[in-house]
Amino acid sequence: MRSITLYTEEIDDAEEAVEELVEQLSGFELAKNSVAIVFIEEELEYDEFYAELRKKSDIPVIGCTAMAMLLGEEGYCGGGISVMILTDDECEFSAEIVENLTKDNYEERITDAYKAASSRLPEKEKLIISYGVLVKGEKDVYGDGLVATLDKASGGTPIFGGLASEAFNFTGSMVFYNEKIIENGQVMLLISGNIKPKYLTINSIDNKSRFSFEITKSKGNEIQKLGKETFVEALRNQDFIVDKEEVMGDYLLSPFVVTIEQPNGEKVEAARTLSFFNLEKETGTFLGATPEGSYLSIGIISRDAVQSSLERGFDLIKGMLEGEEGYNTLLCTTCVGRFLALASDVRVEAKICTDKKPDGFSLMGMYSYGEFCPIKGERSGKDYNMFHNFTFVILAF
């Protein structure tokens, strides 16, 4: 599959933005089948942009808002519009979007959307690229719900992507598919044909604190009790901030770590971001699942760990691609927690991406409120579709 990345800083004049993007396509030939993945700054009027884009091309578009983007040529982009066009004669693309997801309906709606997209493909898909919207309240769907439902519906097809983000206001995230713009939903792109995706999850948590409690009562992504104490009581006794309900911004640099047990008994460790407290019930809600019986600990994240883990990750992905043919595209998702850990040196990740990516590869990525990527079990070697926080995930195809 061939690909190309495009970028413009222009967000005020939709016509000019599209002209700049189209100009960068000069000399790039499209194959029989094409699709565009687009990351946008939240202040862009997407409907105006898409209307202008439609005048130039009928290529399907999926994507989401992003607080910042990574590009192989430009490096770090704090806003604007980034585009990756995928094109191939031997691959087929099929997309769907689902909206108004709640904890009561998400399994049925995501499954129906997957079935609709899958039914249009000539054969079973080999990769799903998907973006969703952040948990904002107790009735919203947590990241594991989006991934697990799509995993079940597809029978374990690799799922890559993440949660849309914006400039830390936690209200402006959106996903989109062509003209449809959704503030509470999920978009999915299924790819079949001549594609053999490779993926890697890079964890930047290099140590843990002495904080460790068994989750004795929880439901989905809500922890009710740690040991014999309520969740809020346990954190209060450890001098954590528990005096307000909306706390995601306060805990972005304090990743909690849980162990997720798979159906075959294998355990896989994952980081989790605390989103908000219910101070009346003294519970805590996370962006990802926090199952009973797991042990909850606190991870330590640092700028050095962010940098060194990413350098190792690119060396690993290069090793995975050595001797392989037909690969020229890297799609990345990285956590906003890593962004904060970099403090004043926010361009570090982008520079590593630009410096370390294989020659001739297109690369595009975005900063996310949660990452979707398979992770390999240490015991079985089996890949499990998982929702992550505080990670950098890479997809090569």
Number of helices: 9
Structural class: alpha+beta
Instruction: Compute the CA-based radius of gyration.
Output: 20 Å
Q: CA-to-CA gap between the ends?
A: 7 Å
Mean pLDDT: 90
Low-confidence stretches: none
Strand count: 26
Which geometry do the CA atoms define?
A: globular
Beta-strand percent range: 35-45%
Helix content bin = 10-25%
Sheet having the most strands: 8 strands, antiparallel
Could you describe the 3D structure shown?
- It is a single chain.
- The N and C termini lie close together (7 Å).
- The chain has 397 residues and is α+β, with helices and mostly antiparallel strands.
- The longest helix is centred in the last third of the chain and has 19 residues, at 303-321.
- The chain is globular, with a radius of gyration of 20 Å.
- The strands form 4 sheets. Strands 14, 15, 16, 17, 18, 19, 20 and 21 form an 8-stranded antiparallel beta sheet that branches.
- The protein is built from 9 helices and 26 strands.
Précis, in short:
This protein is α+β, with helices and mostly antiparallel strands.
List the helices and strands and how they pair.
Blueprint: E1 2-8, H1 14-23, E2 33-40, H2 46-56, E3 61-65, E4 69-71, E5 75-77, E6 81-88, E7 91-99, H3 106-119, E8 127-132, H4 143-154, E9 159-163, E10 175-177, E11 180-182, E12 185-193, E13 198-203, E14 205-219, E15 222-226, E16 229-230, H5 231-237, H6 248-251, E17 256-261, E18 267-272, E19 274-278, E20 283-286, E21 295-301, H7 303-321, E22 329-335, H8 336-341, H9 348-356, E23 362-368, E24 371-376, E25 383-388, E26 391-396
Parallel strand pairs: 2-3, 8-9, 22-23
Antiparallel strand pairs: 1-6, 2-6, 3-10, 4-5, 4-23, 7-12, 8-12, 9-24, 10-11, 13-26, 14-15, 14-21, 15-16, 15-20, 17-18, 17-21, 19-20, 22-26, 24-25
